[in-house]
Specification:
Layout (H helix, E strand, L loop, with lengths): L7 H42 L9 H85 L1
Helix pairs in contact: 1-2
Length: about 140
């Protein structure tokens, strides 16, 4: 049996793919988290501004406040859409990582079986040599 695992090169490739997918997943999760935080901050800022109307003097001020709220609502809608996109990207990155991990694990299990089989064959050969030595010694002693 060959000491070197015959699929070692493929295993290294699969592990490199797994690391790349892991990095992509971390990036996608970070981006998604960042967008969710920005969205929460924008919602909090919009909620805080809703009570600021109080006693207003003229209609121009009211129009300005209405325009600011409309712009804020539009920004929230864009952030909601961006959050949906980044969440979808994070889900796709998670699927990609899971698939890369699955491919790597299969080869890792094969490598473990190969190593165990090689060790067993090595131990059998060693035991056979020891048995041969003991048998030869016994025959020499019995023959004397």
């Amino acid at each position: 049996m060959n000491r070197q695992f015959s699929l070692a090169g493929l295993l290294r490739l699969r592990q490199a793919e797994q690391k790349a997918a892991e990095s992509g997943l971390a990036t996608a999760n970070s981006r998604s988290s960042s967008v969710r935080e920005r969205r929460a901050e924008a919602r909090a800022a919009l909620a805080d501004s809703s009570g600021a109307v109080g006693s207003l003097g003229d209609s121009a001020t009211l129009l300005g406040i209405a325009a600011a709220r409309a712009a804020s609502q539009s920004m929230l809608a864009e952030l909601d859409a961006l959050a949906a996109v980044t969440d979808a990207e994070a889900a796709a990155a998670k699927d990609e990582y899971t698939e890369a991990r699955r491919r790597a694990v299969g080869l890792e299990k094969l490598e473990t079986r190969h190593d165990a089989a090689f060790l067993a064959a090595e131990l059998r050969a060693e035991q056979g040599a020891l048995d041969e030595i003991a048998s030869a010694a016994w025959h020499r002693k019995a023959g004397s």
